[in-house]
Amino acid sequence: MYLSELTLKDFRNYKDVKISFSPQINVLIGENAQGKTNLLEAIYVLAMTRSHRTSNERELLTFKKEQATICGTVERKLGKLKLELMLSKKGKKAKVNHLEQARLSQYIGQMNVILFAPEDLSLVKGAPAVRRKFVNMEFGQIDPHYLHNLSQYRAILKQRNRYLKQLQAGKATDLVLLGVLSDQLAAFGSEIIARRLKFLAKLEKYAQDIQKSITCSKEELTFEYESSIAEVAAKTVDELYGTLRQCFADNNKKEIFQGTTLYGPHRDDVRFLINAKNVQTYGSQGQQRTTALAVKLAEIELMKEETGEYPILLLDDVLSELDGERQTHLLKTIQNKVQTFLTTPSLSEITRQLIDDPKIFRIAHGKIELREEN
């Protein structure tokens, strides 16, 4: 799959832009604050209906504009798709081949993207919330059922937390209602955990091979799913449901006292281990970066396995954060396989030697020019 054409209207600092891309590697060159990352963000938003940079979607609109539009033409094995996303202060509208989608969850997955930015190096050493977001965003693209369960889980979690606060304050006393909410949360939570375990097992296999390749087989990478409830590995969905229900029942008083839900997939984490040692705690900065790179590259192969097509890769100034060896491995992995958008202030010698026939764009003040000389 690849994005052949993109049109932006009143998105960030792009007032009206139409641009055609190479199905291979597209290099976006420009100084800081000129619009390189904004262009990558537009592609990400077109795929995911949300930004990776801000939760305030008004920031995506050009100053003093009421609406922004992102349109893209995606070439897939089964044919061409026209995607359109309209962003306004009132909300979002998404269209596929000019047909408006009733729910955004139906739209997500039409174009799959993987973003790798400097902040993604914190995937390994960052807080658990960083890894949960990673899991939710990536698996949500692959599996619409995961996305649906996650959406329902979040809605019920919000309702349950609100009710726990009411019980905490003595404004409510009905424990039967709490039990109903707990059962609903356990039902969706068990599905989420089961699908996470399934996808993480597949992701681990790809990441292990990549880690071994980068480190000349000196490092074995493994994943551990760290659950807020009892041991979850090898359990069926029904068993996970029973475990979650029991956990809620056993900890009613504790959760009411704290006024929040203390157990469930929204509290879980993923550990990365090298040679059986926790990389977050004991790994060097180089090992942490190699692990983050291995996990991101493994996503490419997992998406290919699950969807039948390679995703689109967005590299936002990430080469500057990697040494020559890791740059080489990254660029060799994606060459002639994945459509890639790469932002950089300038092309380094390493990059020039490793990228075959890139399409180079120069970006300045929200204007994009194709650079003929490579």
TrEMBL record:
UniProt superkingdom: Bacteria
GO biological process, one term: double-strand break repair
Molecular-function GO term, any one: ATP binding
Binding annotation for ATP: 30-37
Keywords for the protein's UniProt record, in alphabetical order: ATP-binding, Cytoplasm, DNA damage, DNA repair, DNA replication, DNA-binding, Nucleotide-binding, SOS response
Gene Ontology CC terms: cytoplasm
Location(s), subcellular: Cytoplasm
PROSITE patterns linked to this entry: RECF_1 (PS00617), RECF_2 (PS00618)
Start and end residues of each RecF/RecN/SMC N-terminal domain: 2-344
InterPro entries given in the database record: DNA-binding_RecF, DNA-binding_RecF_CS, P-loop_NTPase, RecF/RecN/SMC_N, RecF_2
Pfam entry (one): SMC_N
Recorded family membership: Belongs to the RecF family.
Function statement: The RecF protein is involved in DNA metabolism; it is required for DNA replication and normal SOS inducibility. RecF binds preferentially to single-stranded, linear DNA. It also seems to bind ATP.
Protein name: DNA replication and repair protein RecF
Provenance organism: Liquorilactobacillus sucicola DSM 21376 = JCM 15457
